[in-house]
Amino acid sequence: ASWWETQTPLVKSATVKSLSDAQISLTPVASLPISLPRAVPHLTRLECEARSAWQSTFRYEHFNHLLGDSAATLVTLKSCDTDAMLRVTRVRVQRGRRLTEDDLEEFNPQTIQAVERCIESQNGKGVFAKTSFKSSKNESPPRPRLSAREVFDDLTSSKEVLSFLEWIHGGEVSSTLNQQLSLVLVPWQSGISKANEYRAIVIGGKVTCISQQHWYTDVGIKEAQMKRDSAAIVKMYETQLSSQCPFVDVVLDVWVDE
Questions:
Q1: In angstroms, what CA-CA distances link 164 with 8, 24, 159, 169, 207?
Q2: Spatial separation of the C-alpha atoms in residues 133 and 74, rounded to whole Å
Q3: pLDDT tens digits for range 119-145
Q4: How far is CA 8 from the centre of its chain?
Q5: Which DSSP string do the residues of 167-223 spell out, in sequence order?
């Protein structure tokens, strides 16, 4: 079967839209005898467009509505903002220097103001910040960001964010991904900790495995808590997420509120 035949209806719909935006006909893409993802250097231009369209279905924007009251505020970056983020992040990561006022002035003032308005609406609680695809949480302990400066300081110091920005700007990816990125500003949840955060693996639309999110570390989760929280995660997936999630095979990062 072609890769297209293995996709869910929701993924197909999102992919078709991305291809349409890129002015690529679906007909040759749907029949491609390829397995995605593959290494970019081995893809034809058409395959690359298809791959990028498929990857665009992983954008945070597609899942924000699933968060309900905890949904993020999305600040769309203008092309000048993504260019500025690449320049500033590259210099900061390579030189290991601090964010400067000159760096901030590289960004559109309206973008800075939109971030500030979102943070002010949280009444001092702050936000967790990431881009549509990447965050810095694997490089530094997450903490609430209380100003636009803190948001940009965090993201432009990240090697992972830089790697992604260089990839989408490197000519190997079509405009499907590199059209509009967003800053994702999630209301800070102080109740999330290593002791109540889990990773759930869904295969074929069924939760098949649940582990603590932080592997190889004893975070204090006992058997009784694991059984209770696992039951809650399975129930949440089956009653709330399964009908809305566009993937039948997916890995979920979940936290359980006491």
A1: 26, 24, 9, 9, 29
A2: 12
A3: 999 999 999 999 988 888 888 878 999
A4: 20
A5: HHTTTSS-TTTSS--EEEEEEP-TT--TTSEEEEEEETTEEEEEEESSTTS-----H
Distance CA 77, CA 111 (A): 7
Give 179's pLDDT tier (boundaries 50, 70, 90).
Answer: low
Please report where in the chains the tokens 């006909």 appear, as a residue. Answer: 25
Whether this prediction's pTM lies above 0.85 is answered by no
Percent of residues in the chain assigned helix, strand, coil, to nearest 5:
45, 15, 40
* 3-class SS letters over 28-90: HHHCCCCCCCCCHHHCCHHHHHHHHHHHHHHCHHHCHHHHHHHCCEEEECCHHHHHHHHHHHH
Query: What is residue 135's three-state secondary structure?
Result: coil
Q: How confident is the model at residue 243 (pLDDT cuts 50, 70, 90)?
A: confident
Please write the tens of the pLDDT for every residue from 201-230: 999 889 999 999 887 788 889 999 999 999
Place of tokens 């467009």: 49
